[in-house]
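Hi D.,

Good news: the full-assembly prediction came through. Inputs first.
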Amino acid sequence: MIVAASASNVVVWIVWIGAAIACIGSAIAVVSFSNPFYSALALIGNLGSLAVLYLLLSAEFVAAAQVLVYAGAVMVMFLFVIAYLGGHADTPWAGGPRWQTLAAIGAAAALFVEILVVIAIDASSHFSTQAQITSAFGSPAQIGELFLTDHLLAFELTSIVLLIAAIGGVILGAHSRRAAQEETHPRPGMTFTTRASEEPQ
Amino acid sequence: MKGPEIGWYLGVAGLLFTTGALGVLIRRSPLIVLLSLEIMLNGGNLALIAASRHYGRADGQIFALAVMAVAASEVVVGLGLIVAMARRRLTLDVDKLTTLRG
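Then the structure:
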């Protein structure tokens, strides 16, 4: 019995190490690829390996939502826009003076050290005991119940945020189309800044 | 518990967040800045879900789902802005957008 338990523990560790390395490796790939198309593909790998970590944390519903919504819908939209824009590559570390890049790396390293110090300080006091969970933890039933009871306000506000984002996307698209048309076929006496005067037409 | 402690998950989450922040700071293409932002949000999500498992309460997962919805909204608006920039034939370079500089 103990042997079986430790064997499954080893399997969990192996899966965890694989997923964590894939996760961090693909994140570094996203940042360092010069072609945005490859970056987006690497981000899909990042989201997939994160879903594995979520499964290890017994968050099944979030893992499924991650794969369906994030790695599926959102990334397809990203790839569509990158393909539409033609994905011109900019060299990864180019642009801006050299000190700017060095300062950015220094700032990121400082942030990481800070996070590590906080984790190390808390590791001795808070992380020692872990709560026991039932098999229903993280199931769609539990998530749905929490969403419609304790967190109903957050649920409704999230829907409003999504609605506003959709309206914003439509408005941005309509404005940029009109602006592009006026740029190619300028009407006399009409500039971008006097757009308000054309509303009555 | 089987597998690693919460501290390991938080370390991975911190490294993800840092990598994303580095991408936001050093990349010029707004598309890759948006992708790096997604990495930062996912680092935060991983920390939330690890804490949710550690304390045995699913509220952290609710928070993670809300973050996911916000990330989707952010992608919609961000990609809309990038397409609008491309339609006006502006260079896709965050350093060249200096109209609002004070």
